[in-house]
Amino acid sequence: MKIGDIEVGTFPLLLAPMEDVSDPPFRTLCKENGADVMYTEFISSEGLIRHAAKSRQKLDIFEYERPIGIQIFGSEIDSMRQAAALAEEAGPDIIDINYGCPVKNVACKGAGAGILRDVPKMVEMTAEIVKAVDKPVTVKTRLGWDDNSKYIVEVAERLQDVGIQAISIHGRTRKQMYKGAADWSLIGDIVNNPRMHIPVFGNGDVDNPEKALAMRDRYGVDGIMIGRASIGYPWIFNEIKHFLQTGAHLAPPTIKQRTEAARRHISMAVDWKGERTGIHETRRHYTSYFKGIPHFKEYRMKLVTSEDLATIYHTLDEIEARFSEVEVPLPYA
Questions:
Q1: Residues 6 or more apart whose Cβ sits within 8 Å of residue 185
Q2: Among 196, 216, 246, which residue terminates a domain?
Q3: Phi, psi angle pair for 5, to nearest 5°
Q4: How many domains does the chain have?
Q5: Which of 132-136, 155-159, 323-327 has the lowest mean pLDDT?
């Protein structure tokens, strides 16, 4: 399967763009564990064109990550067109547009999922970005703003008509945020629309191999985007792939594999963002790295409160020594 001219595999698993999560350190671990396509954290178009340091840093991509897309968001067409051109200069394989972020300070300013309230503008913005770059353009979006505006079947077709090369759809409305169950039925309707010819990727609530198989077989999606289930658990990609191929589960990662992943993660985060930011932004992953270990609260508290890198490494050494014989169940067992 291809996105434009980019080969992405037979049934690709995509790492979702997640703010303060899908940075280079985490993407490295996901790539090593089976992610086929990855996206950066979303980048503000206004930040990019104003040369904001944080926005510019998010453009960092590396050869071993390919294929990778840079995702941008914003509410102004001209700014988004300029930002797309700047993102292309960083050398990604794909330019992705965020039309799905539900967070208030994004969506209520007309960016992210906020643009779902103005579909004509959404289509116009997309067309301008496609014209501004040579790389394939993809879109990540939701079903609609609320239950009364689930126009995604029509929207997907219109976005395809102005030139996008793939679309990823989260099976909730903006109003739902992340509550309730993701509804994949409209995603299936897009797949089954005879006028659609670009890849359609489903997203939402796929947190185990059985769900991935069910979503593939029931709705016929061309691939699956994994978000929250990968936080602190990059092994999910290979585990899904193995299950889709064999119908059997891989053994869960050992304690040693978990501590090694945590060490590499924080080491890369500190190298990339500095010690203070690297330590703070890695904390959210620890609960999942060590989920299911009994009597772990003392160590978890150390990991999420320590401000010193040496202390964190020492704590990881303690975890490996104390729990080395513990067999941790799969998080979805």
A1: 219
A2: 246
A3: -105, 15
A4: 2
A5: 323-327
Domain span holding position 271: 255-323
Whether the predicted model's global pTM rises above the 0.70 cut: yes
For 191-218, the pLDDT digits (tens) are 999 999 999 999 999 999 999 999 999 9
* CATH number, residue 296: 1.10.1200
- For the question of residue 101 being annotated catalytic, the response is yes
pLDDT at 140 over 80: yes
Q: Which residue out of 13, 70, 101, 221 is catalytically annotated? A: 101
CA-CA-CA-CA torsion sign (266, 250, 229, 144): positive
> Measuring CA to CA, which residue among 228, 144, 148, 227 is closest to residue 190?
144
- Please check whether residue 124 lies inside any domain of the structure: yes
Q: Are residues 88 and 150 in the same domain?
A: yes
